[in-house]
Design goal:
By secondary structure, the chain is of the alpha/beta class. Helix content is 22%, strand content 28%. It has nine helices and 64 strands.
């Protein structure tokens, strides 16, 4: 039989051995040597009851060395003081309970625990690059519990949990302080089949990240509800790059602070949902390329980043709706290239983008509606190339920007569009929409004409197409006429030189740019009447015995022979129209006198007008040429 390591035991140690054999807990304030506990677990003091070695209130002297120990029973050290670091490297224990104890540290590298590891209320202060509590490459088949524990490191992590495998991590009310780039809590590559619960925790690292959990896999929720996370540096206070959370990331009512970098660095995160109601974030909230399989709730959240964007979710995909009603963001909210399969709700939100856009949504895709009634924004709402499957509701929004207020260039809204009244500059080139919501086409026309940055034909064409599709052809024509007028007013160089611009003006006045053919026909009729009237007038104007229009057979006679009224009208029509009724064979203008020459020139001008008006009338009725400008 193997002899015990220790030859002489204290009274307290003998009582401990006796109670362990009987399956009882031993409570004492006397010191107990760590070596005695090791002997018990190795069976060197005889068989121990399956209820394990249970000690309360004792001071454990020496180093509790459990390295490579395969114990048949578990260990409970409740409210004890363990002077030196506990080492359980590659040990195998059914369970381990250190709740309420003060320890110098715990090195559980590679430890295997068959049930729970309970560190509830543990107080530990230590150092080292592998943390005060190290569970690197450990496996806990049950729960790993840090509830209300207080763990502090002066030169490394408080908890080093890289590659830990366990059923759940419970850390409600945990206070953990780390130092340096490894983080206060390291969970790199950890795998948790249940949830990680750090609600109400206070986690701090003044020189680096706080929760450093790149590539962590959590099948349940990652819960930091009500937690206070204060970190520093460019790596982020809450760092979850490439992490996978099967449940939801819950930061509701939490306070996340990083004055020198991201508060949340969760680029490429995969999660079932994001719950951030009333969260307070100081520093960037980064979700670049994230994939969120459920809802995102940021209602009442306060996001502030004095160094740039408050929320960056470029290229993110959200398989649900984004609820951000009442969101307050100091710094741009960026959703460039993001895809939201549900609605995007920003009602009552306050966005302050400063020099950047307040909402940067270029190429954003929202399969549902984008609703932001009551939105207050300082900075541009930039939705160039966006696609909204439902409605775009901006009615009641107050947007202040130094230049363009809303950019909808090349954007598509399948449903109705609601825009605020009295808005500033907008960019609408290439914008397409389903309907105008509660705005009239005249309101929208005023928006295009008076609030766009410069002349663009697209918005007019789209508005006209919308009215035409609704069966309002008359409205469509008025819109297209307004387009040509705006072209002449704001982009005259696009028409050509001054002759082209004069013709463009005349074309609008006489033919409504081809959209008012009746006006052209009326003008043509007036020109024809003018031609006939000139002929009639010419027959009554004389000079030296001759008239400006008289019988042609008597042009060489001393005194001209007057024409009949019908002949005089026919001369005007014959001269002005491309017709040859034969009147001029008997009666014509006498160009031998000055009056006849003046009437000839006048009829030439009328003839030119008739030709031009005839052409415009043909164009207007057939629609062969209609300038889009």
């Amino acid at each position: 039989m193997t002899l015990p390591v220790l030859g002489k035991l204290t009274g307290a140690e003998r009582e401990l051995i006796d109670t362990a054999r009987r399956g009882l807990a031993y409570v004492t304030d006397a010191p107990i040597r760590a070596a005695v506990l090791r002997e018990l677990l190795l069976g060197l003091r005889g068989p121990v009851d399956p209820r394990g070695v249970r000690v309360g209130g004792a001071r454990i002297a020496g180093t509790l060395d459990l390295d490579h120990v395969e114990a048949p029973v578990g260990v409970q050290l409740v409210d004890c003081v363990v002077v030196n670091t506990i080492s359980a490297r590659a040990a195998k224990l059914p369970w381990l309970d250190l709740s309420g104890s003060r320890i110098a540290g715990f090195d559980g590298t590679g430890v295997r625990i068959g049930h729970d590891l309970d560190l509830t209320g543990v107080r530990a202060t230590g150092s080292g690059g592998f943390g005060v509590i190290c569970l690197r490459d450990a496996r806990v088949d049950g729960l790993t519990v840090f509830a209300h524990a207080e763990i502090r490191s002066d030169d490394g992590p408080a908890l080093f949990l890289d590659d830990l495998e366990c059923r759940a991590v419970k850390g409600v009310g945990l206070k953990a302080t780390g130092t340096g780039g490894s983080g206060a809590i390291r969970l790199l590559g950890a795998r948790v089949s249940g949830e990680v619960f750090l609600g109400e925790a206070v986690l701090t690292n003044e020189s680096g990240p706080v929760v450093h959990a790149d590539s962590v896999v959590v099948d349940g929720d990652l819960n930091l509800a009500g937690a206070t996370v204060t970190g520093a540096g460019e790596e982020g206070a809450l760092r979850l790059l490439g992490a996978r959370v099967g449940g939801q990331l819950d930061v509701g009512d939490a306070t996340l602070v990083n004055d020198s970098g991201p508060a949340v660095g969760a680029d490429r995160l995969r999660t079932g949902g994001l719950y951030g109601t009333s969260v307070t974030v100081t520093g960037a909230f980064s979700l670049l390329g994230a994939r969120i399989a459920g809802q995102v709730n940021l209602g009442g959240a306060v996001l502030a980043n004095p160094r740039g964007r408050a929320l960056s979710a470029d290229s993110a995909r959200i398989e649900g709706s984004v609820h951000a009603n009442g969101l307050r963001a100091s710094g741009a909210v960026s959703l460039i290239g993001a895809h939201v399969t549900g609605d995007l709700a920003l009602a009552g939100a306050e966005l302050a983008g400063d020099e950047e856009a307040a909402l940067a949504g270029a190429r954003l895709r929202v399969d549902g509606s984008l609703r932001s009634s009551g939105l207050t924004a300082t900075g541009e709402i930039h939705l160039a190339g966006a696609h909204i499957g439902g409605e775009l509701a901006l009615a009641g929004a107050e947007i202040v920007a130094t230049g363009t207020v809303i950019t909808l260039e090349d954007a598509v809204v399948d449903g109705p569009v609601f825009v605020p009244a009295g808005i500033g500059r907008v960019e609408l080139d290439g914008f397409r929409f389903g309907s105008l919501g509660d705005s009239t086409w005249r309101d929208w026309l005023d928006l295009i004409r008076s609030h766009t940055v410069d002349y663009r034909p697209g918005p007019y064409q789209q508005l006209a197409a919308s009215e035409r599709a609704a069966g309002h052809d008359g409205n469509a024509r008025q819109i297209l006429i307004a387009q040509q007028r705006d072209l002449h007013r704001r982009a005259p160089k696009a028409i050509g030189g001054w002759p082209a611009r004069r013709f463009h003006w005349l074309w609008g006045a006489l033919a409504g740019y081809g959209y008012r053919a009746r006006r052209t026909a009326a003008a043509l009729l007036l020109a024809v009447v003018a031609a006939g009237g000139l002929g009639l007038w010419a027959g009554h104007v004389g000079d030296g015995g001759h008239r400006a229009a008289e019988r042609t057979a008597d042009l060489t006679a001393a005194t001209g022979t007057p024409c009949t009224t019908v002949e005089l009208v026919g001369v005007g029509l014959d001269r002005g129209l491309p017709l040859s009724p034969g009147v001029r064979g008997r009666c014509d203008l006498n160009t031998g006198i000055a009056a006849g020459q003046w009437f000839t020139v006048a009829i030439w001008l009328v003839q030119a007008a008739i030709w031009a008006l005839a052409t415009l009338a043909l164009v207007g009725y057939t629609g062969l040429v209609r300038k889009a400008g």
